[in-house]
Amino acid sequence: MIGVLVVTHGELAAGFMNSVHLIMGEQDQFDTLGLFEGNDFGKFKDEIHNKIVELDSGDGVVVLVDLLGASPYNATAMNMSRLSEEHHDVRLITGVNLPMLIETLSTRNDQQSLSDFVKTAIASGKSGVEELAIKKEVDQS
Fold it and tell me: What is the pTM of this model?
């Protein structure tokens, strides 16, 4: 099973986990980490590494972060070479949202490849962003 790690600023990641548990119940190989004011960046980077190793059962791990180029992204990216050398297949996706999480967690057992899983995550994240379309009455006077 593909592991999923959500890494964000503050309590956002914990909020995602809470929502996932409410909607889907407890999930295997799924965890979160939050970066808080005053956290040591080096220790945070190590926490991410350790969580990825813990979540990898051999099918790889996808790390979903909130913002491109921000600290959770950078700390994860700094681990990628080391994780590859340790034979962990890890992918990093930005812009995590709840539709992305629900879709990907519910399709992990479909025996899809890690590349297909990433494609599903990105597509479901994008398709989960919509504007409510309200039909406007046209004034015919």
Answer: 0.91
Q: What are phi and psi of 2, to 5 degrees?
A: -75, 130
Over the stretch 42-73, which tens digit does the pLDDT of each residue have?
999 999 999 999 999 999 999 999 999 999 99
Q: Which token pair is 101? A: 């999480």
pLDDT at residue 40, as a whole number: 97
Give 135's pLDDT tier (boundaries 50, 70, 90).
confident
Cα gap 105→103, rounded to integer Å: 6
- Three-state SS for the chain is CCEEEEEEECCHHHHHHHHHHHHHCCCCCEEEEEECCCCCHHHHHHHHHHHHHHHCCCCCEEEEECCCCCHHHHHHHCCHHHHHHCCCCEEEEECCCHHHHHHHHHHHHHCCCHHHHHHHHHHHHHHCCCCCCCCCCCCCC
Give residue 11's identity as a one-letter amino acid code. E
> Quick one: pLDDT at residue 87?
97
For residue 31, with 0-12 CB atoms within 10 Å meaning exposed, 13-18 middle and 19 or more buried, which class applies?
middle
Least Cα distance to 102 among 14, 25, 20 occurs for: 20
